[in-house]
Amino acid sequence: MRRSLELWFDFGSTYSYPAALRIEALAGASGVDVSWRPFLLGPIFRLQGWNDSPFNLNPRRGAYMWRDVARVCADLDIPFRKPTVFPRNGILAARVATRFEGEGWVPEFVRTVYRANFAEDREISDREVIASCLAACGVDPEPALAAAVTDEAKGKLRERTDEAERRGVFGAPTFFAGDEMFWGNDRLERALAWVSRPSGS
Amino acid sequence: MRRSLELWFDFGSTYSYPAALRIEALAGASGVDVSWRPFLLGPIFRLQGWNDSPFNLNPRRGAYMWRDVARVCADLDIPFRKPTVFPRNGILAARVATRFEGEGWVPEFVRTVYRANFAEDREISDREVIASCLAACGVDPEPALAAAVTDEAKGKLRERTDEAERRGVFGAPTFFAGDEMFWGNDRLERALAWVSRPSGS
Predict the structure, then answer these.
(1) Which of B60, B182, B187 has its CB closest to that of A170?
(2) Model's pTM, two decimal places?
(3) Closest CA–CA distance from residue B115 to any residue of chain A (Å)
(4) Chain-chain contact of B47 with A60 (C-beta, under 8 angstroms)
(5) Averaged pLDDT of chain B
(6) Which of A64, A75, A168 sits opposite B64 (nearest CB)?
(7) What is the mean pLDDT of residues B145-174?
(8) H or E stretch including B117?
(9) Can you point out the beta strands (E) in chain A?
(10) Is A71's CB within 8 Å of B168's CB?
(11) By the 8 A CB rule, do A21 and A111 touch?
(12) Which of A134, A130, A176, A183 lies closest to A4, judged by CA?
């Protein structure tokens, strides 16, 4: 039976960007499937008393993050340009990725939206930008966008965010190997090693 | 000329523990000297609006940290027992390590105090515990403890904490490779690679 690693991510989250770009190749090399789990960090941040990204609320922490994420992306040979708006609202992209979970084009859509935000400085809350990301993945944008904003689709993303809350998520990216939680792009290798352990160990 | 990596640490900081235990061997293998820089996180946390460790103020973040640091230590084969008091006050140990900076026994003293806190659950704010750590490193405790609490020695630690503030430190462990800052035990290898780069690159 194939094992699976869950990637929980928000399209506005800086460190989720390198995680989303590199997870599929790394997981594939370990014989692990990726379960893509978009959610919304906003409600999770509010639980912790924050009405904005902690990188904005804490300037010392924020200044370091921008330097660090640029280094991380350079090391991974991933293009990075500091977005002029941060954090961008990824709710529409998250609704699309949640509504079409399991479709073969979703991983490439996720990467395309992340590149739009963090390499091309495009406004991913803009419906036209998400439409162009869908088209770039060979998906007809209008039907997909219409399906992503039904009450059912909206409810599915809300449920996902509720699940993140219940499972103790406090930031992104977060990986779940079964019930074992790992936080941060730099824990991806460790999470994959965990999920690849022999059963019962 | 030997290159040097600065390790800025607080004796109460969980992730500083594995960093302090493994830095010397890793740095030595890269031909890099370690500059040990004890400081106090308390004033740095207060700058960020916190009157306690963020791991205590934010229970979701704290619950994860305890699980994660146990995994990190297990992976490194470093003993770890969750301290019954957190964070412990490391000011006396920091004064000792600052006062005797450059002495050959200081790195082993640092490691001994960290093990007392995070492997043996001993109260490192207790003068007798620090005396026993000094004795374990072959240092006569009483003269060392007396020298560590002079106004000059206290002032030196305060100056170090002020320097951390000026240089943008917001947590521990923090590594400086020249002016380049890296935060977190998981950035140790990256910081060493940075300091080891050919000059001018």
Answers:
(1) B60
(2) 0.95
(3) 24
(4) yes
(5) 96
(6) A168
(7) 98
(8) helix B106-118
(9) 3-9, 32-38, 174-177, 180-183
(10) no
(11) yes
(12) A176
Helix (H) or strand (E) holding B165: helix B151-166
Residue B199 is predicted with a pLDDT of: 67
pLDDT at B200 over 80: no
Is A61 close to B170, i.e. CB distance below 8 A? yes
Residue in B60, B68, B183 closest to A64 by CB: B183
> Is cis: bond before A87, omega within 30 of 0?
yes
Query: Taking CB atoms and an 8 Å limit, are A58 and B67 in contact across chains?
Result: no
Alpha-carbon span A129 to A49, nearest angstrom? 31
For residue A99, what are its two tokens?
């509504």
Residue with structure tokens 């400081």? Answer: B39
B-chain residues near A71 (CB < 8 A): 190
Residues of chain A with pLDDT under 50: 200-201
ipTM above 0.90 for this complex: yes
Which DSSP string corresponds to B141-156?
A: HHHHHHHHTSHHHHHH
What is the length of chain A?
201
Considering only CB atoms, which residues of chain A are within 8 Å of chain B?
Answer: 47-48, 58, 60-61, 63-64, 67-68, 71, 75, 168-171, 181-184, 186-187, 190
Contact A63 B168 (CB under 8 A): yes
Closest CA in chain A for residue B75? A190
Contacts of B42 (CB under 8 A, 6+ apart): none
Angle between helices A188-195 and A16-29 (to 10 degrees): 30
Closest CA to A157 of A80, A63, A93: A93
Q: How far apart are CA A37 and CA A191, in angstroms?
A: 15
Sign of CA dihedral B40, B45, B50, B52: negative
